[in-house]
Amino acid sequence: MSVPARLDRYIETDKQRNFPRDFLAGWEDYETWEQARVGDAGPGQRTFTITEEDILSYNLACGETDPLMVDPSYAREHSPTGELLQHPIFVTTIGFYTVGEKGIGTWMRTPGARNPGQRIEIIEPFRYGEIITTTVTTVDKFIQRGKPYLQMLLDFRNQAGVIKARWWCSLILPASRSDVARFANA
Amino acid sequence: MLEKIGQSTSTAPCFSEVDSSYVFEPLVQNYLQETIDRYALASLDMNPVHTNLEWAARAQVFGIPQTVGHGMMTMSSLASVVTRQWGVLSAGGGHLRFVEAKFTKPVKVGESVTATAKVKSKHHHGPGKNWVRISVEARDSSGDVVALADVGYGLPD
Fold first, then answer.
1. Strand, coil or helix: what is A80?
2. Does A159 have pLDDT greater than 50?
3. Cβ pair B24, B82 in contact under 8 A
4. What confidence score (pLDDT) does residue B6 get?
5. Mean pLDDT value of segment A142-163
6. Pick from B137, B133, B131: which is nearest to B149 by CA?
7. DSSP bridge partners of A114
8. What pLDDT, on the 0 to 100 scale, is given for residue A1?
9. S-S: A98 plus which of A81, A115, A134, B124, CB 3.0-4.6 Å?
10. Can you list the residues of chain B whose pLDDT is less than 50?
11. Contact check, Cβ <8 Å, A24/B8
């Protein structure tokens, strides 16, 4: 078990409680740089139903203090949506939750991965109760200065098919399964 | 961790009121292990390089025997330096459109990072569509740049 017990005291949401938090368990099923093919696309493993507690937890973790972001009763009265406003980088949570642990894009859980840069576009705010489906498309795979880069585009749509946000997610990865194993077994 | 809850004060200016001399208030983020742990749970990015001190010391992913903050946590600061002043959604229709970040140095636990931002360019796309590109930079306590970003923000007319 690679998740220290001290983290349990910070659990605030059902998703945090039930999400497979140990990234060193099941790494053999993660997609690798070697396996990934540009143009491959598919749905994430699970959907994400937007709740107030998900947004509140993310906003607080970012250190936000604006009552429109951290005080649900104030937001109900004053926010343009009548709901807590979400931090723009909240899509990170949706991405990790929906991509899951097996299949396309699961290289985002890879032990030993490094983050070179990201792009996130917000099209419209997520709303409570929306059921978000993620479509994952592998868009680039390259080697730069000897390092293997992989990039995927995550499209986040609600149950009506409306696109809410897009995330171009890039990582520098251990290239092969045996390269991943060296980190997973460290 | 919550320092204060008061009335929301963030408001975006009108497009015509902003020029390339516009500078945002700096934002300081301390990378305490508790802060990183909370971010790991909130974002569901539970990679052990952020939370598992023993594994991080053995694996040395970044060549250092310590945990590091999430790049996405730094990215959140790069966005927050703008949104704490202008809002995520502002009265009159202001809204953050995109964040594009590049990470240049890992932020190890215990570090303090300061993000600064200024308007870089104004994009005249017509009423209701005008936006500005904001250049954001984050430096650690040694003064090294740890991240650079462009933030796009749509402003009311």
1. coil
2. yes
3. yes
4. 58
5. 98
6. B137
7. A172
8. 63
9. A134
10. 1-4
11. no
Q: Which two tokens stand for residue A39?
A: 């143009």
| Contact present, A127 and A51 (Cβ < 8 Å) | no
Q: Cβ(A108)–Cβ(A32) under 8 Å? A: no
For residue A173, give how far its alpha carbon lies from the nearest alpha carbon of chain B (Å): 11
Closest by Cβ to B103, choosing from A70, A97, A116: A116
Tell me which chain A residues have a C-beta less than 8 angstroms from the C-beta of B44.
15-16, 19, 21, 92-93, 96-97
- Cβ A115 vs Cβ B50: under 8 Å: no
Cα–Cα dist B45/B70, whole Å: 8
Dihedral sign, Cα of residue A25, residue A98, residue A69, residue A89: positive
Beta bridge partners of A163: A157
Q: From chain A, pick out residues whose CB is under 8 angstroms from the CB of B65.
A: none
Contact A118 B59 (CB under 8 A): no
Q: Give me the pLDDT at residue B4, please.
A: 45
A8-55 pLDDT, tens digit per residue, is 999 999 999 999 999 999 999 999 999 999 999 999 999 999 999 999
B13–A contact, CB cutoff 8 A:
no
Q: Is B37 on the interface with A (CB under 8 A)?
A: yes
> Taking CB atoms and an 8 Å cut-off, how many pairs form between chains A and B?
176
Interface subset of B 114-153, CB within 8 angstroms of A = none
Could you tell me the CA-to-CA distances from B110 to A68, B91, B140 in Å, in that order?
29, 37, 10
**Which of B9, B42, B99 faces A120 most closely, judged by CB atoms?**
B99
Mean pLDDT of chain B: 93
Query: Which residues are CB-neighbours of A12 under 8 A, at least 6 positions away?
Result: A53, A56, A57, A60, B41, B42
In angstroms, the CA B9 to CA A126 distance is 22
